Amino acid sequence: xxxxxxxxxxxxxxxxxxxxxxxxxxxxxxxxxxxxxxxxxxxxxxxxxxxxxxxxxxxxxxxxxxxxxxxxxxxxxxxxxxxxxxxxxxxxxxxxxxxxxxxxxxxxxxxxxxxxxxxxxxxxxxxxxxxxxxxxxxxxxxxxxxxxxxxxxxxxxxxxxxxxxxxxxxxxxxxxxxxxxxxxxxxxxxxxxxxxxxxxxxxxxxxxxxxxxxxxxxxxxxxxxxxxxxxxxxxxxxxxxxxxxxxxxxxxxxxxxxxxxxxxxxxxxxxxxxxxxxxxxxxxxxxxxxxxxxxxxxxxxxxxxxxxxxxxxxxxxxxxxxxxxxxxxxxxxxxxxxxxxxxxxxxxxxxxxxxxxxxxxxxxxxxxxxxxxxxxxxxxxxxxxxxxxxxxxxxxxxxxxxxxxxxxxxxxxxxxxxxxxxxxxxxxxxxxxxxxxxxxxxxxxxxxxxxxxxxxxxxxxxxxxxxxxxxxxxxxxxxxxxxxxxxxxxxxxxxxxxx
Length: 499
Prior knowledge:
Elements: H1 11-14, E1 22-26, E2 32-34, E3 49-53, H2 63-73, H3 88-91, E4 110-112, H4 115-121, E5 124-129, H5 139-157, E6 162-167, H6 171-182, E7 187-194, H7 200-208, E8 212-216, H8 220-233, E9 237-238, H9 244-250, H10 252-260, E10 268-273, H11 278-292, E11 301-307, H12 312-318, H13 348-362, E12 367-372, H14 374-385, H15 393-407, E13 416-421, H16 429-437, H17 476-493
Parallel strand pairs: 5-13, 6-7, 6-9, 7-8, 10-11, 10-13, 11-12
Antiparallel strand pairs: 1-2, 1-3, 4-5
């Protein structure tokens, strides 16, 4: 629809203008910094930063008007407002619309689980398929915001030839390389990967986008230490979730969930895996923003899930008494949920602050962390996909986490789950192959369920009968004989009955 086709009283709201007074706030010492500098940590104490906006005029608009604004914007053919910036005023309202990078990210479908899968879990739930973002993962939400800001900052300061760098287990590198490639005139991309810890499909993505790909020994945590040192001492733009603009973009997940369910989320439980903890930070922050602006009337439950092979956040919250909690990084073990195989998440200080605020405003504990096994993750991924979904291993982790939360009484059958499948299952086809072939290395601790395994059945021609060969097709009676023979075999294997 064109802007003049909307109700006249709503037209002034639909195309936003830049405004706001954004700043970085250090979670450790409270220092504040101007956003005209690209900062990742506090220059005074090294603490983790959050982006905030002193301008809270958007809260003066009633929640019911905001709901109309977002619903009407859904019908607009204005490209910058088609993605995560549909929620412009709640995201990064200082960035002009013509500086926004949009590659088709955001507004991924919410798909209800079929009857069989809902019955197996014991409650109603949906998958939000973030693997249907441009680079096939949720990382595109944050990258769209971070690269939009980078383009805006480059224009303001006359910058060019910027080197954007990140550490990755696969998804971040694919997204960073893709979005950097779109801004190729001003941005070059380099990604640092743990050698042998990224699937072939994920490795191919940054290579295809033209990024400089560097592989080093170790795991993600080791790569992260290296890029942090580079960002501290060299002129590079860090694109990991330590970059607060990434967090802002990922808040759109919460905004979309609210809109997908007509802003009624009091009975919803959002389930997502925890790796570097940027995503759960963003999801909490997004719901808090909507709640404080009366866009939603209640805060949903949030379940964070970790594998027992990489579970520092679970161990922290396992202690019920806040004063007795101490965060201790862990040494990770091999995990099928590679994107979550992180033992020292950089966003942990953000999680601690926002979880306390979230539970306080909710009037009770709404943030829960559960632990699942590698076996449960793989069984859940295969089971989900054999019931019509496209869940990655992290999506399997979400399903296993919902089941664990249900079994432990954290959630009940009156609630509705919204599970984050963070990437497309094709990125993790390697682990599906290992499951079907029963070829997991012992360190993964995965033994395939025989009822879930699958393999192709090879058909051959008996008694050396005619069969087509490359460059030698069958014809006439030989072709008829071959087709009849194959059809008979297939009918027998599939237990077909004749008409």
